[in-house]
Design brief:
93 residues; alpha+beta; Alpha-Beta Plaits; 4-stranded antiparallel beta sheet; 2 helices
Amino acid sequence: MVVGIVRIELHVPAARSLKDKRQVVRSLKERIRERVGAAVAEVDHQDLWQRAALGVAVVAGDGGRVREQLDDVRRLVDHAFEAQLLDWQEDVQ
């Protein structure tokens, strides 16, 4: 069993309130869950309007599949026009 985790730091430039940010974060979390099957949670910056941190975890039988899933997550985040990627910290074990 191989586990991959990633901490994603995001900037949400169009957010003018916590409600705006929550909509963006919720939408991105749902896309990751649906398309990749990963566990996703907002892990930091809950009180800031334009900043978010997500924790993502995937599990598979081999490292290659975990890398594919994390690459899929990265593509989804990179193509999220409403949020800009600030930092990506990945660990596969």
